[in-house]
Design a protein that fits this description.
With 242 residues, the protein is of the alpha+beta class. The protein has helices spanning 4-8, 16-29, 38-52, 58-66, 112-118, 127-133, 152-158, 194-198, and strands at 79-80, 95-96, 105-111, 141-146, 176-181, 201-203, 213-218. Helix 2 (16-29) runs antiparallel to helix 3 and helix 3 (38-52) runs antiparallel to helix 4 (58-66). The structure holds FE2/S2 (inorganic) cluster. GO terms for molecular function: 2 iron, 2 sulfur cluster binding; metal ion binding.
């Protein structure tokens, strides 16, 4: 029976950055599209979560090794970094979604496909002003509230939207969004490189906005820099990638 550390190929005293780097490497190798399997993917993910959450003891080992779930699970309401930078080593006090102060967080969203249609850019200063004047369909542009216990993807789904996703585990980038205004701290354990984090790219299956009003462009999986990280959703039983 392999321990979570053996599954990720790191020493028990490895620092957090080593843990994150090992997870990113192993979760790619374990992906069904890269020669792995859903079971292996899930085992790697659970091993990482056990170490991250300080539960990499015998019980956690057994849980990680004996998982029989054939499908990457829906993301738990996981701990989130308390920093907005891509430097996960700075995250010494993880903040769970339940720990976020009670507040109303409103997300103003815009579909990336609309930018293509209108010749707009994510970096346009007046992007959302233009969107507000364009009389777009509600699925392409609008606002909704994100509750404290929801990731952004969960909030979109709970409000009736069908935003893209596949793994729900931070590995495939199908759920990527670009932040135009506001903050959405990146959690530990995602596949995005630091330069993408610095450009405001986040994975909606793991992250949630923390500012009162946040503007995001969703469906950015084909944006340059993000598309290169995209894993096909075809191997995931529950996926929506349109
Ligand atoms: S759904 Fe795969 S990274 Fe979010």
């Amino acid at each position: 029976m392999s321990s979570p550390y053996e599954i990720l190929g790191i020493d028990p005293d490895a620092d957090e950055q080593t843990l994150v780097d090992a997870y990113r490497k192993r979760v790619k190798e374990a992906h069904p599209d890269h020669g792995g399997s859903r079971e292996e993917f899930q085992t790697v993910k659970e091993a990482y979560e056990a170490i991250r959450d300080g539960e990499a003891d015998a019980g956690a080992t057994a849980r990680a090794s004996q998982s029989e779930s054939p499908t990457p699970s829906r993301s738990p309401k996981r701990a989130r970094e308390s920093t907005t930078s891509g430097d996960s080593s700075a995250a010494t006090a993880p903040e769970s979604s339940q720990d976020r102060p009670e507040q109303t967080v409103t997300v103003e969203y815009l579909n990336y496909e609309v930018l293509d249609d209108y010749g707009w850019e994510v970096a346009d200063d007046d992007l959302f002003e233009k969107a507000g004047r364009a009389e777009l369909d509600y699925e392409d542009y609008g606002k909704f509230v994100v509750k404290n216990n929801e990731t952004l993807l969960e909030a979109a789904e709970n409000r009736g939207f069908a935003w893209p996703f596949a793994c729900r585990g931070g590995a495939c980038t199908n759920c990527a969004v670009a932040i135009v205004d506001g903050e959405m701290p990146p959690p530990v354990g995602h596949i995005l490189p630091d330069e993408m984090i610095e450009k405001g790219i986040r994975l909606s299956c793991l992250a949630a906005p923390v500012t009162e009003h946040t503007q995001v462009v969703y469906n950015v999986k084909h944006m340059p820099g993000v598309e290169e990280l995209l894993l096909s959703p075809s191997r995931f039983e529950k996926a929506h990638s349109d």
